[in-house]
């Protein structure tokens, strides 16, 4: 019978950003009960306050001003506090802050201003932070559900609008199906190794590979099922089918946040599980992980399908949905590169850099869609961008920045993200998938720059509604996109301490 864990086993100081936000989210739900329906700006303000404090707590270790945990374990080894989890925390907290800014006036416009929106957003943010710090497969599963269930609810927040309800139902059904694959994969990995913590899995894999034990096949199937479960969350091909319908039907403010937060959580878990716990799973005397070829093939298919299908889209939300699928492919290149042990840490840094760049860029792009969208969720076609530069020059300039960044044009954050991901792929000798990434980036220029063409070179009667919070969100996203592109050392300094490997 296990004993009661001591305070040193819990090591709560190492979990301070996450523990604070968990407590704050629970308190916010209670406080919101006493906030009148007509004054929900108070709840929104309190949400931003809590996120701001949590962001400061997450930034302190990266700035070197404080260290709550440096590779330390908490909750009996189930929580890892290190530079990787710090990076994940910063990305998702910035995303959540921008998500609150874009949501407040949008919820007013669609007459859905409810305090529970902000509590649900906090719980999803908490789930992402836990996935980044997970040291055990059980924590990955619990964190994934904490991330997902609020998003299912938020996707249907425009009920009784049929499209919103349909998107929530599709997301829930397919999400539950994917969770089943994840749990089955965890069970098989446990069956092969006898443990669920990543360090224990690493040690067990070392033994399995050294002895060429038959349990390696069980481990291989388990890793494949786990990849299916997390592949759904990051919208990788062929687990992407939910993405365009959910993005189009869900409230746009939810999509702006969800498109980044879900990817941050999913890729954080993939890097943790594959890039550290199973990086040494090499079969037949090979030097790279057995799962590497599968991941880079999925990455190539994801980039190809996402970019080619985006070309024919006429709705901005569906176009950005397929764009999101394509960018999942670019990030999967980094995950595949982590399958080469000498490159694992560099690949993890590249994924974090890409996620930071993607956070500013994608939230900003959806914020512009919110500005042109009408209250009844119409006017999201490409034609809604015609002539936008004439009536809203700053809004059009911001959208152009976001499109350049998504394309990967130099002096934008998107270019820096792709540079480091491709660099990691080349270091891991994954030249073919790097070439596919470069070629599909060229293809993506067609549909991204077509939006810029509509804004600047087509005449039209574009309408845009840009209240102050939304304007601030777009401005912060645009400045962040440019700053990270012009001063890439901001990203490299944040990630240079990231290490994942166990053992020597």
Describe the structure.
- With 504 residues, the chain is an all-alpha fold.
- The protein has one domain (7-495).
- It is built from 20 helices and two strands.
- A two-stranded antiparallel ribbon has the order 1-2.
- Helix 4 (83-109) packs antiparallel against helix 5 (116-133), helix 11 (252-277) runs antiparallel to helix 14 and helix 13 runs parallel beside helix 17.
- The longest helix has 32 residues, at 162-193.
- It is globular, with a radius of gyration of 22 Å.
- It starts with 6 loop residues before the first helix and ends in a 9-residue tail after the last helix.
How far apart are the termini?
33 Å
Q: Taking strands numbered 1, 2, ... along the chain, how are they ordered across the largest sheet?
A: 1-2
How is the main sheet built?
Answer: 2 strands, antiparallel
Structural class: mainly alpha
Roughly what fraction of the amino acids lie in strands? under 5%
How many strand units?
2
Number of helix segments? Answer: 20
What is the 3D form?
A: globular
Any idea what the radius of gyration is?
A: 22 Å
Write a short abstract of this structure.
The mean pLDDT is 89.
List keywords for this structure.
2 strands; mainly alpha; two-stranded antiparallel sheet
């Amino acid at each position: 019978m296990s004993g009661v864990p001591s305070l040193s086993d819990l090591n709560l100081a190492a979990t301070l950003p996450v523990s604070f936000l968990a407590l704050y989210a629970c308190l916010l739900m209670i406080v919101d009960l006493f906030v009148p329906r007509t004054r929900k700006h108070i709840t929104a303000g309190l949400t931003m306050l809590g996120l701001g404090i949590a962001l400061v707590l997450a930034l302190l270790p990266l700035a070197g001003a404080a260290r709550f945990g440096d590779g330390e374990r908490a909750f009996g080894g189930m929580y890892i506090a290190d530079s990787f989890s710090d990076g994940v925390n910063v990305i998702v907290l910035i995303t959540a802050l921008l998500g609150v800014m874009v949501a407040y006036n949008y919820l007013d416009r669609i007459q859905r201003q409810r305090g529970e929106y902000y509590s649900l957003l906090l719980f999803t943010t908490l789930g992402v932070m836990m996935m980044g710090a997970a040291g055990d497969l059980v924590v990955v599963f619990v964190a994934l559900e904490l991330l997902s269930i609020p998003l299912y609810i938020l996707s249907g927040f425009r009920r009784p609008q049929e499209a919103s309800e349909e998107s929530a139902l599709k997301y829930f059904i397919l999400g539950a199906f994917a969770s089943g694959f994840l749990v089955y994969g965890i069970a098989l990995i446990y069956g092969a190794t006898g443990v669920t913590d990543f360090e224990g899995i690493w040690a067990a894999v070392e033994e399995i590979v050294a002895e060429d034990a038959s349990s390696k096949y069980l481990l291989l199937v388990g890793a494949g099922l786990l990849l299916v479960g997390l592949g759904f969350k990051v919208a990788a091909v062929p687990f992407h089918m939910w993405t365009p319908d959910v993005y189009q039907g869900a409230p746009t403010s939810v999509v702006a946040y969800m498109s980044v937060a879900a990817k941050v959580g999913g890729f954080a878990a993939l890097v943790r599980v594959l890039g550290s716990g199973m990086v040494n799973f090499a079969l037949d005397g090979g030097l790279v992980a057995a799962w590497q070829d599968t991941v880079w093939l999925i990455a190539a298919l994801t980039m190809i399908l996402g970019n080619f299908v985006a070309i024919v889209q006429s709705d901005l939300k569906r176009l950005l949905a397929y764009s999101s699928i394509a960018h999942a492919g670019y990030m999967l290149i980094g995950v595949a590169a982590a399958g080469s042990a000498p490159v694992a840490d560099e690949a993890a840094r590249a994924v974090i850099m890409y996620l930071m760049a993607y956070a500013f860029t994608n939230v900003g792009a959806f914020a512009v869609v919110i500005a042109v969208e009408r209250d009844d969720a119409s006017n999201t076609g490409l034609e809604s961008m015609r002539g936008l530069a004439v009536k809203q020059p700053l809004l059009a300039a911001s959208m152009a920045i976001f499109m350049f960044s998504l394309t990967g044009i130099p002096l934008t954050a998107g270019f820096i993200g792709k540079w480091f991901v491709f660099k990691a792929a080349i270091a891991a000798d994954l030249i073919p998938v790097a070439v596919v990434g470069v070629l599909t980036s060229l293809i993506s220029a067609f549909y991204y720059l077509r939006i810029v063409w509509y804004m600047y070179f087509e005449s039209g009667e574009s309408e845009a509604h840009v209240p102050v919070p939304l304007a601030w969100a777009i401005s912060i996203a645009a400045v962040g996109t440019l700053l990270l592109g012009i001063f890439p050392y901001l990203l490299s300094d944040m990630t240079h301490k990231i290490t994942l490997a166990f053992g020597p």
